[in-house]
Structure formats: structure tokens, C-alpha cells
């Protein structure tokens, strides 16, 4: 982490506080942030400064944001907000607590087919939802798939996603990872949903076999293999892979796009069928071979050969030769055409003259005649503009004893004038007309009104777009829990649907925050027995999902790890796995007297541990020192530096703290300070996931944890005397 990062510490839109950098991509930097309005941790993706001034990159960034904001699926990383603040283009996403599928495979190697089926089904579900919204990911690879602690999967980084109708091609830019791109992408062709299916097939192939289907010295070499080569089938690499699983993999990776799965829904259906009956066979491989043999259009004739001539010959059609008789007929027809044209021209000229004469007579009668022969009986037309139609009709219409025959125009118009107000008249004011002449008046319908559509169930960003399209204004959204409406979708509007509004009026969206599920704080289970851990989970309303054994230097039966990190806020009813030591490396502590002062805490502590909630959950003082020895045996591996007897003040005690390591780097430097004094300073591999160093102190002291010299957590801890 870069401690000098200029974004860390800033507040975007007076709402999102940037805490630390957690990743980066080709276009953007990703930060962990706190949403102060909803009091939750989020991920903020900021467009790189070198691209922020480039209009093309900014358009692409917003295209990504709008595409992802259309999606709402449990297997897709959610996007909460898209905005611009202080010259920074950013979007706010769900913060994922997990690792990438690539990291997971690197740790575990080849996956068994059941695990591969589990992950692939979730990936295909995500794509099924995205494709139904017209969005193609175009960069499916294990690096963009997040594996959560509970085994669920979320597809992330729609950085090159595009609405499929845009039909962008690979010739414009190098997109995605070459090891996972489809043949049509490698050729620079147009990509659609079936390109994503090919990439899923490659990911499934890698999970099943532990290797990529194609390797090469360069990206071009790998791309050519995607176009022209067929990889080894998975069962040639591992014959324990079920035949049906191999068929699904190779059918998804079919180079001919027309023979591949035509939709994510088709592939999802096959995965479900196979899950129900792992011994089944789909027959895709045999069908592919038959299609290859029987397809006549694949035979391309060699230019210049007899075969070519034979193929092309039927396409030749002799051109009809001109006949003299036809030419003579055209000559005679030409004369008749000229005769017809002359008659039409004469008729047109006569009509034009008659129209001109009629117009002159009308002008003389209406304009010149009144000037020559003024008629004292004519009356002037007054101005009716701005008056109420009903009042004018009551005063001036002939039926009411007035001077004119008042009629309303066939059309009415929207205007700023009140409904019923006259906005046009014909003839206009000042004209002299005969008594009883007809005056046509156009009246106002009043200001334009809009009937508000029912927007419930729409995603917030989509609803905002619909409001603006209708000519209305979007107000500041309100948030409420809902058991029936998905998080981020609209519950209702204020005013309610079907309301009649004036143009530009404000509409407020009431958005769902999801079910109002009661939450619990995950307890620390480390150092307890399995039964004690189960009781602790039940007391918090959590579900014990089972246990697994793990090699450890702790006594057999002692909990050494847990699937949910202690201190996290989780929904009640969440399933939790625990990991119990098998005692493989445990050695009984020596009973020989030691010259070193004892750091073992008293069996009956005189002071209770602090019960105040921890602001940062990764630092967890052990609540039961008797299950977590404060000092490892001298022959057991230890990651913490020895504590010199002289540095431990009189009356101090030792405690374990559990620290969850970050997963976005291979190793991290961990430093612990107690009241400003460094008591631990080690570089550890993050593959350990969790470390439990021992620290000493007396009374209540401030304990700070630093990752790579950047403060990650701070908490006041009460030490037993």
C-alpha cells in the first residue's frame, strides 16, 4: 500500500471516505472506503488520473458504469453509485471479502469436478442475468471472479463490458486476457453472449485439469491456437473427470460459434442436469465429429482448378442479346411519350392561370374593394388574447346578442396560461369584419402535465433515467428495508405512481436496502473446544455448519480457524464452519523449571476483558486465555519476536490477539504497537490468512495494528493482572 497515495483520506461527495487502496486495473484504481451516509464499507473505483482528461476513456468509464448499474444479481458485484466529485470520476461498488478464483486455484491446484461444477454454475447464472439485459462481459477469466468465504462466487470487473448492440470489436483495442478469449475475439470479430460462454469453458477446463488449454511464447501464438487448434480433452489429462463434465466443457469451447452453446441458459440447463445425474452423457462430442464430416460447405475449392470451374459454372447466366425489333418499338414509343408530355404540360399551364386569376379576384374583393367602397356597417375585431373563453363567448357570441359567431378551435395547446385562457384568435385584432362573422379562438390546456409511471421494482439508476426522460426532476433518494424488493431496487415513489405532475416537478425514489435482517457480531472461537464453539455460535443466533480437521501445533480438539472472521457483523442464521486441530505438531510443554519470568496469565483474572464493541474487527483479544496459551513451547514454530523479561513491566500480563491478513498481496509487514511501543514487527505470508501473536501490557492500553506501515486498526484492550 502506498502511504503517500493522494486519494487516501479524501471525502468524495461529502459521503465516501477513502481508507486504503485494495487493487488496480488497466483503467482504474480500487479503494476501500466508508459510506458515511449508510455507515457501511464499500469499494470505490476511480478512473486513473492519466485517463481522466481523455474524453474517450471517460466515455468508456461511464459506459462501464451504466452497464453494470443495470445488473442486480447475487452472483455479480453490485454497483451502488456513479458520480463525479472534485474532478474525480468514480463508481461505488460492493466491497467483497474474499479472493479471486485464480488465487484460489493457485493455492489448491486442480479442483475436483464437484467444486468446479459448483463454481461454474454460479458464473453461468451471473452471465445469464447479464445477457438477458443485453450486456456481454467480454473478459471472463479467473482473475475477475471472486470467491467468498462461504463458497459463493461473484463476477467482477465489467471494465470492458458493453451493451451487445454496440458491437465493438477487438480490432479497436486489445481486450481481455489472451488465454481466455474466444476465437472470434482473437480474429477481431464481433462478440456476443456466446463469446462469454467460450471463456467460461476455458475457466472450467482450467479448474478440472489444473492447466490452460493453450500455451505459447507470445500472446499472438496463443491467439492463433484458439483459432486453429483443438486442446487435449480433459479426460486425456485426467480420466477421473466424468464424461458429461468433459462434454459440457468442450461444447462450451467449440471454436465454431454456431455449434457452441447458444446461450448461458442452455449451458446452465446442462450443468443442472449433470448435477442431478453425474453419470449421464450428452453426446456432444460425437455430434461434433459427424457435423465435421457431413458439412459440405467446409470444402473450399482451390482457385483455378477444375473443381472451382465446376462450382462456379452454374452461377453464370448468359446475357440476353438486344433485338432490333425491340429497338424499333422503343423509337416509336418515344414519339408517343412526347405527345403525352405535351398534353399534360398544356393542362397544367391552364390550371395555373386559373388559380392566379382566382387569387387576384379574392385580393381585389377582400382588400381593394373595402378601400374603394368603405362600408360603415363593418366592425373592428377586438383582442381576446389572455381572456377567458367562456366569458368571451357569453359576451360576444351572436346567440347571446353579440356581434360575432364565436367558435373554439379544433385543437387546444399547452401553455403557461391557465386552462381556458385564449392564446390565439383568427382573424386577428384590428381587422374590420361584417357583423356576425365567425371568430375562431384557440384556448390553453394549461401547463403540460405528466402522469408518473409505476417505477416500483426497477433498479435505482434505471428509474432515475425514466424520470428524466419524462421531463421530471430526480430528488434525493430515501432508503428503507424490504423483505420483498431486492436491494437497490425501487419500492415506491413520492408522489405515488399515476400522479399527475407538472413539467420539471421533483420525484423522490424510495429504494430498498434489502431485508431488515437482525445482525450479530461474530464471536472469537479460536482456542475453544468444538462444543464450546457450537454453544458460542448458538448464543449469537448463528448456525454451526460443521467442522474440519487441520494440521496444527495446537492441542487436538482445539479450534484453530473459523470461516467467518471474528468481529464481523453478519446476519443471524449465517452458517459458520470451524477448523479443529488434529494435534499433529503439538508437543506437551516442558515441566522443567525455567529461569525466565512466567508470562502465563493468572487462572482467575482480576479484571474482566473490555466488553466495548471493537471498531475494527480484525484485532480480537482472546476472551479465554486458558484455551489460548500466552507463550508457545520453545520447540514450536513462532512468528513473534521474543519478549525480553526486562521490557515487561511489573504487573503486566500477556494476551493473544487474532489478526486477519489482507488477501490482495502475497506478503505483508505486520507491526503491533502497545501505547506507542512496538512489540511485534514481522513480514508474513498472507496465505496464512490469520496470525495470533502474543502481546503484553497492563491495565487498559491502546493497541494499534499496521500493515506495511499504514494503520489498519486501533483498539483499547484491557490486560489481566
Shape from CA axes?
elongated
State the separation between the terminal residues, measured CA to CA.
Answer: 37 Å
Rg on CA atoms, Å: 40 Å
Q: Which structural class fits the helix and strand makeup?
A: alpha+beta
The strand order across the widest sheet is: 1-2-3-4-6-5
Main pleated-sheet profile: 6 strands, antiparallel
Total of helices: 16
Q: How would you explain this protein's 3D organization?
A:
With 721 residues, this protein is an alpha+beta fold. It is built from 16 helices and 36 strands. The strands form eleven sheets. It has a six-stranded antiparallel sheet. Strands 13, 14, 15 and 17 form a four-stranded mixed sheet that branches. Strands 19, 20, 21 and 23 form a four-stranded mixed sheet that branches. A hairpin with a 3-residue loop joins strand 1 and strand 2 (16-24). The radius of gyration is 40 Å and the shape is elongated.
Topology of helices and strands:
Elements: E1 11-12, E2 16-24, E3 28-35, E4 40-47, H1 49-52, H2 55-69, E5 79-85, E6 88-94, E7 98-100, H3 101-108, H4 113-132, E8 135-136, E9 145-148, E10 153-155, E11 162-163, H5 183-186, H6 193-209, H7 219-228, H8 234-237, H9 243-252, H10 264-276, H11 284-294, H12 306-312, H13 324-372, E12 379-380, H14 389-396, E13 405-408, E14 413-414, E15 422-426, E16 432-433, E17 438-446, E18 449-451, H15 460-469, E19 473-474, E20 478-480, E21 490-494, E22 500-502, E23 506-512, E24 519-521, H16 530-539, E25 543-550, E26 559-562, E27 569-571, E28 575-581, E29 620-621, E30 653-660, E31 667-674, E32 677-685, E33 690-691, E34 694-697, E35 699-707, E36 710-719
Parallel strand pairs: 13-17, 14-17, 19-23, 20-23, 25-28
Antiparallel strand pairs: 1-2, 2-3, 3-4, 4-6, 5-6, 7-9, 8-11, 9-10, 12-16, 15-17, 18-22, 21-23, 24-27, 26-28, 29-30, 30-33, 30-34, 31-32, 31-35, 35-36
Helix pairs in contact: 4-6, 4-10, 6-9, 9-10
Amino acid at each position: 500500500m502506498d502511504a503517500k497515495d493522494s486519494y487516501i483520506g479524501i471525502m468524495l461527495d461529502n459521503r465516501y471516505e477513502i481508507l486504503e487502496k485494495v487493487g488496480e486495473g488497466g483503467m482504474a484504481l480500487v479503494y476501500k472506503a466508508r459510506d458515511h451516509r449508510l455507515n457501511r464499507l464499500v469499494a470505490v473505483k476511480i478512473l486513473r488520473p492519466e485517463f481522466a482528461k481523455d474524453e474517450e476513456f471517460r466515455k468508456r468509464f461511464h459506459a462501464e458504469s451504466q452497464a453494470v448499474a443495470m445488473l442486480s444479481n447475487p452472483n455479480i458485484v453490485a454497483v451502488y453509485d456513479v458520480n463525479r466529485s472534485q474532478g474525480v470520476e468514480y463508481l461505488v461498488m460492493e466491497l467483497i471479502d474474499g479472493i479471486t478464483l485464480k488465487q484460489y486455484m493457485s493455492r489448491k491446484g486442480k479442483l475436483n469436478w464437484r467444486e468446479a461444477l459448483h463454481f461454474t454454475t454460479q458464473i453461468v447464472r451471473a452471465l445469464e442475468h447479464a445477457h438477458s439485459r443485453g450486456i456481454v462481459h467480454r473478459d471472463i477469466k479467473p482473475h475477475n471472479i471472486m470467491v467468498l468465504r462461504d463458497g459463493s462466487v461473484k463476477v467482477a470487473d465489467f471494465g470492458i463490458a458493453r451493451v451487445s448492440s454496440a458491437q465493438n470489436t477487438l480490432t479497436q483495442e486489445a481486450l481481455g486476457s489472451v488465454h481466455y478469449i474466444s476465437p472470434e475475439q482473437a480474429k477481431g470479430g464481433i462478440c456476443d453472449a456466446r463469446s462469454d460462454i467460450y471463456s467460461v469453458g476455458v475457466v472450467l477446463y482450467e479448474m478440472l485439469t489444473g492447466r490452460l488449454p493453450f500455451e505459447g511464447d507470445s500472446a499472438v501464438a496463443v491467439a492463433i491456437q484458439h483459432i486453429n487448434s483443438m486442446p487435449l480433452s480433459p479426460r486425456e489429462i485426467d480420466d477421473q473427470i466424468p464424461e458429461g463434465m468433459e462434454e459440457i466443457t468442450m461444447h462450451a469451447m467449440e471454436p465454431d460459434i454456431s455449434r457452441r452453446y447458444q446461450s448461458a441458459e442452455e449451458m446452465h440447463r446442462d450443468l443442472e442436469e449433470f448435477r442431478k445425474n453425474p453419470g449421464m452423457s450428452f453426446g456432444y462430442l460425437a455430434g461434433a465429429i459427424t457435423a465435421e464430416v457431413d458439412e459440405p460447405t467446409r470444402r473450399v475449392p482451390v482457385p483455378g482448378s477444375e473443381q472451382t470451374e465446376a462450382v462456379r459454372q452454374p452461377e453464370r447466366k448468359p446475357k440476353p442479346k438486344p433485338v432490333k425489333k425491340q429497338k424499333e418499338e422503343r423509337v416509336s414509343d418515344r414519339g408517343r411519350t412526347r405527345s403525352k408530355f405535351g398534353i399534360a404540360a398544356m393542362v397544367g399551364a391552364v390550371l395555373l392561370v386559373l388559380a392566379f386569376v382566382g387569387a387576384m379576384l379574392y385580393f381585389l374583393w377582400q382588400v381593394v374593394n373595402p378601400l374603394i367602397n368603405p362600408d360603415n356597417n363593418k366592425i373592428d375585431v377586438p383582442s381576446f388574447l389572455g381572456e377567458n373563453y367562456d366569458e368571451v363567448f357569453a359576451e360576444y357570441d351572436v346567440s347571446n346578442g353579440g356581434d360575432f359567431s364565436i367558435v373554439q378551435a379544433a385543437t387546444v395547446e399547452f401553455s403557461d396560461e391557465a386552462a381556458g385562457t385564449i392564446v390565439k384568435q383568427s382573424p386577428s385584432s384590428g381587422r374590420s369584419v361584417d357583423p356576425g362573422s365567425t371568430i375562431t379562438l384557440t384556448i390553453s390546456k394549461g401547463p403540460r402535465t405528466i402522469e408518473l409511471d409505476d417505477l416500483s421494482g426497477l433498479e435505482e439508476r434505471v428509474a432515475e433515467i425514466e424520470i428524466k426522460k419524462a421531463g421530471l426532476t430526480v430528488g434525493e433518494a430515501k432508503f428503507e428495508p424490504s423483505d420483498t424488493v431486492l436491494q437497490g431496487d425501487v419500492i415506491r415513489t413520492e408522489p405515488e405512481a399515476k400522479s399527475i405532475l407538472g413539467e420539471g416537478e421533483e420525484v423522490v425514489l424510495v429504494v430498498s436496502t434489502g431485508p431488515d435482517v437482525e445482525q450479530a457480531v461474530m464471536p472469537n472461537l479460536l482456542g475453544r473446544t468444538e462444543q464450546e464453539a457450537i454453544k458460542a455460535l448458538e448464543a449469537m443466533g448463528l448456525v454451526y455448519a460443521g467442522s474440519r480437521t487441520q494440521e496444527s501445533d495446537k492441542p487436538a480438539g482445539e479450534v484453530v480457524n473459523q470461516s467467518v472472521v471474528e468481529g464481523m457483523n453478519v446476519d443471524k442464521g449465517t452458517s459458520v464452519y470451524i477448523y479443529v486441530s488434529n494435534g499433529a505438531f503439538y508437543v506437551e510443554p516442558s515441566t522443567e523449571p525455567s529461569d525466565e519470568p512466567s508470562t502465563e496469565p493468572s487462572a482467575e483474572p482480576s479484571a474482566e476483558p473490555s466488553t466495548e464493541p471493537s471498531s475494527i474487527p480484525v484485532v480480537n483479544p482472546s476472551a479465554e486465555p486458558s484455551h489460548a496459551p500466552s507463550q508457545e513451547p520453545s520447540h514450536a514454530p513462532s512468528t513473534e519476536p521474543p519478549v525480553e523479561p526486562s521490557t515487561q513491566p511489573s504487573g503486566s500480563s500477556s494476551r493473544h490477539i487474532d489478526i486477519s491478513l489482507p488477501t490482495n498481496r502475497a506478503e505483508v509487514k505486520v507491526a503491533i504497537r502497545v501505547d506507542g511501543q512496538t512489540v511485534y514487527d514481522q513480514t508474513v505470508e498472507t496465505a496464512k490468512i490469520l496470525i495470533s501473536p502474543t502481546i503484553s501490557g497492563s491495565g487498559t492500553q491502546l493497541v494499534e495494528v499496521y500493515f506495511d506501515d499504514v494503520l489498519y486498526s486501533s483498539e483499547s484492550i484491557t490486560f489481566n493482572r
